[in-house]
Amino acid sequence: MSAAGAFGLVAGAMGAIGRLRYGAALVLACTATAAVAASGRVALDGFFTFDNAYRCTPGPAFGRLLRTLVRWDEVTDGSPGGETYRPRLMPLQVPGRYRGQFGAPRLFRAGDEYRVTIPVRGTWRGLPLRSLVLVNWPESEGGFELVFDAPPDDLRRAANAAGFRIPAAGRAYRDSGVMGVTVGIGPSGKGSALSCYEG
Which domain of life is it from (predicted)? Predict the structure, then answer.
């Protein structure tokens, strides 16, 4: 066989291998895309992080969202001693790669309690998230809830694997010496919620 013929055989073989590799990569990419499309949920473990899960201390990105979501404006209703605080929703502080997983926040009031609910489409430690709820009382402490479409027992196992150490009773108070926090898991509609309340 001539050198040119041998070169042609080698080039053809390399081209076939390249096409096979490209085909395999394309199949893998399509499979991954189909899996994401089928579940419709993105893992949000990189956003919902905790610097100290036992004391329910949010990580940097999650903490920033909680701190900046509501602004309290001081107002006066005209009566003596009638100073009150009115909540105002601020733009969501969520990194761009996660922004599409968060819906528009909604503010509800029940007496002195204000609740802001943000629809969330994603997962945390493999469990499907439904919403993030921020709860506040004017001139008082507050907290948050992560609501899941999952049974309480599944959520407790996932939370404890992350370091929350929530007892079977479903609730525990952690005293930090200055301000404690109550961490708990309980039913929420057809799912369950991981809650953290200061005070």
Answer: Bacteria
